[in-house]
């Protein structure tokens, strides 16, 4: 399993909108964030993860969906958009995913959330997680992802 990243983005947030800035100063998503390959993204505030997600769509599209959801079909969108003005989003891409399969990156997502929970508490705004049997590869990637963050117990 080959995973690239992270690409880092800074988000300015209101309950109804978001603005993106690449850590290098570009005012938009680029690179792996725009691909249709399976991606893991971690939203953090002050280096503490508050949400872990996956998507195959470009991140701008995924965020728009999370901002426009109104609960009609059971999805209320990102809870964290109502609680923070700024956040950091790091993005990793599963480069060698077979076809458009996202089971491996979803397994890494669950392992990342498990590591956060093991250190004390679930990510502050995590609303859903899918668990799958994992291998040492999934767990090792999760440890690498978590090396970018601070978790409190």
| Count of helical stretches | 3
Q: Would you tell me the overall average pLDDT?
A: 92
Question: How would the global form be characterised?
Answer: globular
Number of strands: 5
The ordered string of helix (H) and strand (E) elements is: EEEEHEHH
Q: How widely separated are the two ends?
A: 30 Å
Q: Keywords for this structure?
A:
five-stranded antiparallel sheet; 5 strands; 153 residues; GIY-YIG endonuclease; alpha+beta; 26% strand; single chain
Please characterize this protein's 3D structure.
Helices cover 24% and strands 26% of the residues. With 153 residues, it is α+β, with helices and mostly antiparallel strands. It has one domain (3-146): 3-Layer(aba) Sandwich (GIY-YIG endonuclease). Strands 2-1-5-3-4 form a five-stranded antiparallel β-sheet. Helix 2 (103-118) crosses helix 3 (136-146). The chain is globular, with a radius of gyration of 15 Å. The termini are far apart. The relative contact order is 0.23. The mean pLDDT is 92.
Task: Give the arrangement of secondary structure elements.
Layout: E1 3-13, E2 18-22, E3 39-45, E4 48-55, H1 59-68, E5 86-94, H2 103-118, H3 136-146
Antiparallel strand pairs: 1-2, 1-5, 3-4, 3-5
Helix pairs in contact: 2-3
Summarize the structure in short:
The chain is α+β, with helices and mostly antiparallel strands and 153 residues long.
């Amino acid at each position: 399993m080959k995973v690239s990243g992270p690409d880092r983005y800074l988000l300015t947030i209101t309950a109804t909108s978001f603005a993106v800035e690449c850590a290098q100063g570009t005012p938009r998503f680029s690179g792996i964030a725009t691909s249709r390959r399976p991606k893991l993204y971690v939203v953090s505030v002050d280096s503490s993860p508050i949400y872990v997600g996956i998507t195959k769509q470009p991140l701008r599209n995924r965020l728009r969906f999370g901002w426009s959801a109104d609960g009609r079909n059971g999805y209320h969108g990102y809870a964290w958009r109502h609680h923070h003005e700024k956040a950091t989003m790091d993005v990793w891409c599963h480069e060698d995913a077979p076809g458009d399969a996202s089971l491996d990156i979803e397994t890494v997502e669950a392992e990342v959330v498990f590591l956060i929970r093991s250190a004390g508490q679930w990510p502050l705004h995590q609303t859903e997680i899918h668990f799958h049997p994992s291998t040492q590869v999934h767990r090792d990637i999760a440890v690498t992802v978590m090396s970018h963050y601070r978790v409190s117990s």
